[in-house]
C-alpha cells in the first residue's frame, strides 16, 4: 500500500500588509510585549531610564541598536543550562551602533572638534553585547534584574586574543606589549552560537571607528598601507572623534603611528588589527574571559553559523563579509567533534576555533562552486604581490587580501547566513550592491556574474531612490557535495530575488506578490524546531512604500528550479547573464509576518524551544530624527515603543499567539 506523503505545513497567519505606520504590525491573532529596550537597567542598582539624553551608567543598561541575538535555555531554578528550557533563559544580543541624537540631551556633537568626554564614554558603553536572564512570570517573559548572569560587554571591556594572530607583531599595543590581549568589541552585527553552548558576536563595520592622521602612510610599511586601504581606514579620517580626548582609552581609537618603537608597543598604531573578528562569550559563565577568535579571519563579520556537528567530523562555521563586492567564507576545525564537549563552554572554543582552515567561496556559472583554502601552502597567497604574506597570522589579520589573491567571487554584500536543519543547505542573504554595473566596470565596480546576476536602475524610479546596480538584493543557497560541511565543493542556486511586486517581470524574477514582496533581505534564520525560514529586511529602496519587515518561508532545495537568463539594463547599456534560479515561492511558501515602526531595521531573532515565543529586535526606530528635530517631539521620526512624545528606542520584543499556540506554522 503506497504511503501518502505528509501534507505540506500551512502558515497559521494571514499576510501583513506593507505599511509606513509608526507601529509594529503583526497578523491577527498575534501580539507582542517589549522585553528589553535601550537604556533598561540590568541590575537593581541602576535607576530607570529617563530617555531624555541625560542618562548615564550604560555598563549596566541595555545598549543601543539591538541586533543579532541567541537564546540559551536555563532550568527552572535558573542554576544550569537546559537546552529545552522554555520558561527561563539567557538572551545574548548585540548592540551594533548608536542613534547619537537620541542618546544625548541635545543630540550628538559634530565630530569636528574635541568631543565631550561624557558623550564619548556613553557611546563606547552603549556598543557591544548584553547578556540578560529572562523568565516567564504569569505567562509573560520579563527581565530578571537580580540575575547574576546579567552583564554588558562594551567597547572598553578587557578581553583576550586567541588563535594564530595572538602574540603576532600585528597585535602588539601599549595595552598588551606581547599582543595577547585587547579591549572592547564594536559594531557587533549578527551572531551565532556554538555546539558547546557559547555565543559568537561578530564585529562588522569596526573600520569606521578608527581615526588616522593625514601623512600616516609615509610612516608605515607597504604591507600596512595595503591593509589600511583594503579595509577602508583612510588617512585623514576622524571617525566618531573618540580619539580627540586625552587619555589612552580614547587615544587608542587613533590608528596612526605616533610612537617611536619599532614594534608598535609604545602606541596604538596596531589597535585596528585587534578588531574585525568573531568574538566568543560564555553566557552561562559570567566570569569567563571573552576571546577574539582570530582564525575565523578579519573582515566586516556579519555572523558565524555552524553546520550540524557530527561526532568524529570537523566543526564547520559559515560567515559573510558585509561590504559591497566582498566574500563568503567558511572555517573548518582541525579537531573533530566530541559530543562530550556539548556543555564544556568556552574552553571547547579553544579546542575547535583556534586551529583549523579558513576557506573562501568561488561560485561558477554552471551552478557549482569551490572552497579555496586561505593558507600559506596556497601559492597564490605566498606569492601575492598585493601583500607580502609570510605567516598564517598575516592571513588571519589581512584576510581580505588573502581572499583577493586566490580569486574568490565578489558578492553583493553577504549579510546573514543560516543552515537549513532539514538538509544542511546554507542560505546567504546578499542584501544589495550599488557597485554592480553592466558596462565599463572600473575601480570597485564589477559586472554582474552568475551568482550576482542583477544590475539595473531602480524599477520604481521613485523620488526616494536613485539606486543602481543590484537594488533589492537576493538570497543564494549552497549544498555541500556529499552533504559534508567540510567538502571542498558545492552546488548553488538563487532561492529568491527580492523585488517590488509591481516591478516588471524582468526584475521581479521570483514573481513576488503584494503578500511577500520585499527589498534588501538581511537577517535570515532557520528555526531548528520546525524548519521555518525567517527573513528580515534592512531596506533603503522600498521605504517610500513600507517600513522594514519580516517574512516566513518554507523554501525548497538547491536545484528545484532551472538555469535562467537575466536581462540587465542601466541607462542605454544592457547585459544578459545566465544564473541558476530556484523555484519561485508562492503565497503559501513565503508570507509577510511583521512590519516594523518608522525608520527601523528588523534584525535579530530567537525562539523558545517550545515555539510559543519569538524574540525579534527592532533596531534604530526614528534614526532619521535630526538634531534640529529634537526641539519638537512632533518632528521625531518615531516614538516607538513608548509612544507619546518619547524618543524612539531600539528594543527586543516577545511575539506570542493570543491562543498560546506555536508561532508561524
Ligand atoms: Fe550590520 Fe550587515 O548589517
Ligand atoms: Ca545586518
Ligand atoms: Ca543591512
Ligand atoms: Ca541598521
UniProtKB/TrEMBL annotation:
Tell me what this protein is called. Answer: PhoX family phosphatase
Q: Which Pfam families match?
A: PhoX (PF05787)
The record's listing under PANTHER family reads: DUF839 DOMAIN-CONTAINING PROTEIN, SLR8030 PROTEIN
Which species?
Chitinimonas arctica
Stretches the record annotates as Disordered: 450-469
Q: What is the lineage of its organism?
A: Bacteria, Pseudomonadati, Pseudomonadota, Betaproteobacteria, Neisseriales
